[in-house]
């Protein structure tokens, strides 16, 4: 076994463990984490040549296995586990602080024993919403969600359209879809709401973190949770400078968190750890003087001893991959029907595929471009798309009333920086809107026409709403400046 743990300031420590079944029962292996070496200390020496030869072969095999394991990168230096004294002190300090300082959040309302499943549902919804999203943003969404679907049984009856509408603007829309699918799965089962991590992780959209949060908070199971806030707190408590994104490093953060969990109040302790990271042990401006565990914090201690060391050095900053750039031409297609004396037109919306980016959501017709392109190239691409998808072809199936460039803006996804060009195309169809739908059965409908009022109330993504606001501004004779603070941007931090 490769050496996994290394002390931040003292590179040498020794910890014994029980011998494996393959090892000589007369030997006790121990970790010597200096220069990543593994030695076997023999309790008694045999004078028999055969025994010595066997022992040498075993030691050689152990060294070979150690060398093989060392070839796998372990991602940096991970501290050893907390001592029993440290563990008890941290538990007591954090729980006392949490009892006195926890924020009043709606999903923290305690339920009696008969309402554990209701509490579990509330924790589930809140934890999914809080992923990569600020608490202040989540509060209103959570309240509206619970008003509409107060129980998991209510949610299981909802449609994806309803969920997407409720989720609109919150970003990472797959989360809402998974919540709906998971609710349907739980309600369809015969065993009620899962109450342990192992069973919770079988539910669609529930991973190790969410399962731990639900199990510990709602069902009092003594299991850990590890999110960005917890990693930051643990990395500073132990002055861990290893890359937190490394697979083995991440696994050991889970081990540290598991050691700390208070068995009598696991849910409160997990929430106290996350609360500390969200309110005091923040990314760039930690309030160490107010921290309840500063006396156990090695990073804080090191910063006092050496002015060149800062608490914010921990955890190690991971360089994010540069987002790829792409370009998109959006055509807001407005169809006028002068025969019905309509004062305004109806807008065509396209439903995205059920898999991939923004799956199943509605948007205006658009084309992804190979590269940044001029107006003529963008219009040619849009014209081909409209002809192929909707049989909209100037002079043949429609008359162009107006066509206007409305501007452009940049929209940020997790790994994509998208430049969006927007135009408004107003047409009058020769055969009316019915011809648009003649080749599509109702059960395979992937697009529809809606009025401006319906468009304003639909659950649309922030980018689509931005496009719609540009159309409204144009019709009102004003302009809308590009929005540099994209609500869907990955820069939103969880629980801050």
From TrEMBL:
By its UniProt entry, which Gene3D superfamilies does this protein fall under?
Helix-hairpin-Helix base-excision DNA repair enzymes (C-terminal), Hypothetical protein, domain 2, Nucleoside Triphosphate Pyrophosphohydrolase
Entry EC no(s): 3.2.2.31
Provide the reaction this enzyme catalyses: Hydrolyzes free adenine bases from 7,8-dihydro-8-oxoguanine:adenine mismatched double-stranded DNA, leaving an apurinic site
Record-linked SMART domains: ENDO3c
- Acidic residues bias: start-end ranges: 64-80
Q: List the biased-composition ranges (Polar residues).
A: 37-48, 476-488
Record note on cofactor: Binds 1 [4Fe-4S] cluster.
Residue ranges for the region (Disordered) are 14-80, 475-496
Cofactor (UniProt): [4Fe-4S] cluster
HhH-GPD domain mapped to chain residues: 129-279
What superkingdom heads the lineage? Answer: Eukaryota
Q: Name one Pfam family in it.
A: NUDIX_4
For this UniProt record, the keywords arranged alphabetically read as follows: 4Fe-4S, DNA damage, DNA repair, Glycosidase, Hydrolase, Iron, Iron-sulfur, Metal-binding
Enzyme class comes to hydrolase
Q: Which family does the similarity line name?
A: Belongs to the Nth/MutY family.
Its annotated function is as follows: Adenine glycosylase active on G-A mispairs.
Name used for this protein in its record? Adenine DNA glycosylase
Q: Which gene encodes it?
A: LOC104773440
């Amino acid at each position: 076994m490769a050496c996994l743990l290394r002390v931040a300031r003292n590179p040498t420590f020794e910890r014994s463990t029980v011998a494996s079944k393959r090892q000589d029962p007369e030997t006790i292996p121990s970790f010597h984490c200096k220069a990543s070496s593994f030695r076997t200390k023999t309790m008694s020496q045999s004078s028999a040549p055969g025994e010595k030869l066997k022992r040498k072969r075993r030691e050689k095999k152990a060294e070979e296995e150690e060398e093989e394991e060392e070839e796998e990168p372990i991602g940096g230096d991970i501290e050893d586990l907390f001592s029993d004294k440290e563990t008890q002190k941290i538990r007591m300090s954090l729980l006392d602080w949490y009892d006195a300082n926890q924020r009043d959040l709606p999903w923290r309302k305690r339920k009696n024993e008969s309402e554990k499943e209701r509490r579990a549902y509330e924790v589930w919804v809140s934890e999914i919403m809080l992923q990569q999203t600020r608490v202040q943003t989540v509060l209103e969404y959570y309240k509206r969600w619970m008003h509409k679907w107060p129980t998991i049984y209510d949610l299981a009856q909802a449609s994806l359209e309803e969920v997407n509408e409720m989720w609109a603007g919150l970003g990472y829309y797959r989360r809402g879809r998974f919540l709906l699918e998971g609710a349907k799965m739980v309600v369809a089962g015969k065993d009620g709401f899962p109450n342990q991590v192992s069973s919770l992780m079988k539910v669609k959209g529930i991973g190790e973190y969410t399962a731990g949060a639900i199990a510990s908070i709602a069902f009092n199971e003594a299991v850990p949770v590890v999110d960005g806030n917890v990693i930051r707190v643990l990395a500073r408590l132990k002055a861990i400078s290893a890359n937190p994104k490394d697979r083995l490093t991440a696994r050991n953060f889970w081990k540290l968190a598991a050691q700390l969990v208070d068995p009598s109040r696991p849910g409160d302790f997990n929430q106290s750890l996350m609360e500390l990271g969200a309110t005091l042990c923040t990314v760039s401006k930690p309030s160490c003087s107010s921290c309840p565990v500063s006396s156990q914090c090695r990073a804080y201690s090191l910063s006092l001893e050496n002015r060149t060391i800062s608490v914010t050095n921990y955890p190690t900053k991971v360089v994010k991959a540069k987002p790829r750039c792409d370009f998109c031409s959006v055509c807001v297609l407005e169809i006028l029907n002068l025969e019905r004396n309509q004062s305004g037109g109806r807008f065509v919306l396209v439903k995205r595929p059920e898999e991939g980016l923004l799956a199943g959501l509605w948007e205006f017709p658009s084309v992804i471009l190979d590269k940044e392109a001029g107006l003529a190239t963008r219009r040619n691409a849009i014209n081909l798309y409209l002809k192929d998808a909707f049989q909209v072809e100037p002079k043949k199936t429609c008359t162009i009333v107006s066509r206007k460039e409305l501007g452009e803006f940049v929209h940020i996804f997790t790994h994509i920086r998208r430049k969006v060009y927007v135009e408004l195309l107003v047409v009058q169809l020769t055969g009316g809107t019915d011809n648009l739908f003649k080749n599509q059965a109702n059960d395979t409908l992937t697009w529809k026409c809606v009025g401006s009022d319906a468009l304003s109330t639909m659950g649309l993504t922030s980018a689509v709403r931005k496009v719609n606001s540009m159309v409204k501004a144009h019709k009102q004779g004003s302009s809308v400046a590009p929005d540099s603070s994209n609500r869907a941007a990955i820069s939103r931090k969880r629980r801050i």
